[in-house]
Amino acid sequence: MVVKGTIVKGIAGFYYVDDGKQVYECKARGVFKNDNKKPSVGDEVDIDISGDTPVIIKIYERCNLFARPPVSNIEQFVVVSALFAPKPNLFVIDRFLTSAELSDVDIVMCFTKKDLVDQKTIDEIKNIYSDIYPAVFIDATKKSDIELLIPYMKGKKSALAGPSGVGKSTILNALCGDSEMETGNVSEKTKRGRHTTRHVELFRCDFGGMIFDTPGFTSLDAPEVSEEEVQFLFPDIAEYVGQCRFKGCRHIAEPGCAVRGALEEGGIHIKRYESYCDQIKQIQEREKNRY
Q1: Is a pLDDT exceeding 50 seen at residue 232?
Q2: pLDDT (tens digit per residue) in 162-204
Q3: 197 closest CA partner among 160, 238, 235, 224
Q4: In whole angstroms, what is the distance from residue 31 CA to residue 205 CA?
Q5: 179, 91 in Cβ contact below 8 A?
Q6: Strand partners, 157
Q7: Cα dihedral angle (184, 189, 191, 195), rounded to 10 degrees?
Q8: Which of 65, 83, 115, 216 is the most buried (most CB within 10 A)?
Q9: Is the pLDDT of residue 88 over 80?
Q10: Average pLDDT over every residue of 239-253
């Protein structure tokens, strides 16, 4: 008998496949090794459950695949940042956003610990991002706040991404109450969260979505793209691409630049432009170190 399901965990050569009713502990067919194709958490698969040990016999085509962490078929990134302890680092936030843009998935921003800051701080963040991405501001200890995320996550496979200590495990626990993931305190010395996720896992939630919990989406450099490609990973900057006086404009110091013109007129927020310049600089340094 063949059953279709989703790989929700892989440990020590065993894969755990959820068909929506139960989870099967499975092995993978040897043919996948011959094809240099390894099952990944998030894969949609067929399993043969007729023997003593269920066997994965087919991996369906993936919409995406990540090597670090090894997950597939992410449909949405929920980029999580704290408003306090740790304070938001916009350069870091924007690296998560551009990496998500590169993956061609939906993006939702979630800012936690709103109870620890004043309305002015919240409004400053809204002013930067609210016209670009959906943004939700929550106290992760309040059920009513957590539920604000559900309309964005219903029916999708979402991955929580963001620095340690911002509340990703708390959010996952609240949305998928039976996940029993550990939640780490923020280190007093570094003001950063302790790593609490030790392996990749995909949880099914009662509201009809699935959430990846992974230790891999906690720290990112500028994405591995060329200088020319970065502009397309900032939707607010991409809007002006092609309107500059010179073809191939990098929007740094060139005359007749439409991006810097929009910056001066308030069409692009200065913090976003500074993040763009930071990522250009990182790419230049990375290229220099390769030679």
Answers
A1: yes
A2: 888 888 889 998 998 754 444 333 334 334 333 444 578 999 9
A3: 160
A4: 32
A5: no
A6: 210
A7: -30
A8: 83
A9: yes
A10: 95
Q: What's the rounded mean pLDDT across residues 30-38?
A: 77
Residue 119 corresponds to which amino acid?
Q
Say whether 268 sits in a helix, a strand or coil: coil
Q: How far apart are the first and last CA of the chain?
A: 56
| Token pair for 125 | 């963040």
**Are residues 75 and 154 in contact, defined by beta-carbon separation less than 8 angstroms?**
no
Q: Which two tokens stand for residue 239?
A: 């809007």
Residue type, 107: I
Residue 223 preceded by cis peptide, ω within 30: no
- Report which residue type is found at 235: P
Pairing of strands 135-137, 106-112: parallel
Q: What is the pTM of this model?
A: 0.86
Contact yes or no for 99/109 (Cβ under 8 A): no
Q: Is the pLDDT of residue 219 over 80?
A: no
- For residue 167, give both structure tokens: 């509340």
